[in-house]
Amino acid sequence: GESVGLHLPTLSVQEGDNSIINCAYSNSASDYFIWYKQESGKGPQFIIDIRSNMDKRQGQRVTVLLNKTVKHLSLQIAATQPGDSAVYFCAENSGYSTLTFGKGTMLLVSP
Amino acid sequence: SAVISQKPSRDICQRGTSLTIQCQVDSQVTMMFWYRQQPGQSLTLIATANQGSEATYESGFVIDKFPISRPNLTFSTLTVSNMSPEDSSIYLCSVDLVMETQYFGPGTRLLVL
Known about the structure:
The structure holds two protein chains of two kinds. Chain A is mainly β. Chain A contains no helices and ten strands. Chain A has strands at 10-14, 19-24, 32-38, 45-51, 56-58, 62-67, 72-77, 86-93, 99-101, 105-110. In chain A, strands 1, 3, 4, 8, 9 and 10 form a six-stranded mixed β-sheet that branches. In chain A, strands 2-7-6-5 form a four-stranded antiparallel β-sheet, with no helix packed on it. Chain A is globular. In chain A, 32% of the residues are buried. By secondary structure, chain B is mainly β. Chain B is built from no helices and eleven strands. In chain B, the strands form two sheets. In chain B, strands 2, 4, 5, 6, 9, 10 and 11 form a seven-stranded mixed β-sheet that branches. Chain B has a four-stranded antiparallel β-sheet with strand order 1-3-8-7, with no helix packed on it. The N and C termini of chain B lie far apart (36 Å). The mean pLDDT of chain B is 94. Chain A binds chain B through residues 2-8, 32, 34, 36, 42-46, 49, 89, 91, 93, 96-104, and chain B through 4, 31, 33, 37, 39-45, 48, 90, 92, 94, 96, 99-107, 109.
């Protein structure tokens, strides 16, 4: 199958480790952010979102942190599993319901 | 969530031809979006399609090259016209089910020879 991560930065971790994926966004007026996971051969899958009035939001094994001062977003995955291997994209909403996507990070999890 | 399907899932086409990609969602949605994902790259928005109005195209994308239809609240098509090898990409549709949150179809993988 095709690879969506041929030219992307890669984070390699061991199974069971915690993973942190970072994203810098561009528009200080953005007020809504989403993390997506894209497995090979599939479309992006919604993971978690956060609004600009929050600094942190937790889901199941995932946490998103937002630092508006430096326009930085991070996704933390606890106890990373081989099934977490994918390309992860952050996206920002700058208005009019349209999303601008970051470059993406490939996460490789070794058993 | 909703079930979003795309047809075809993949295709190999000759340069100079056109391909129409269909996107179907199992619930009514206001906005549908079309993206292009070139090999090894991120997603780039092509256009936003609202039912009953002309699609809104992003900078660098034009209607003559990427005509879009939106005949009802559950369906949209994107045509890639007069294709060249540079059009080889994954084409994705998405819908907003909850305000501002977009959910994606599985994509159409296009190879132009």
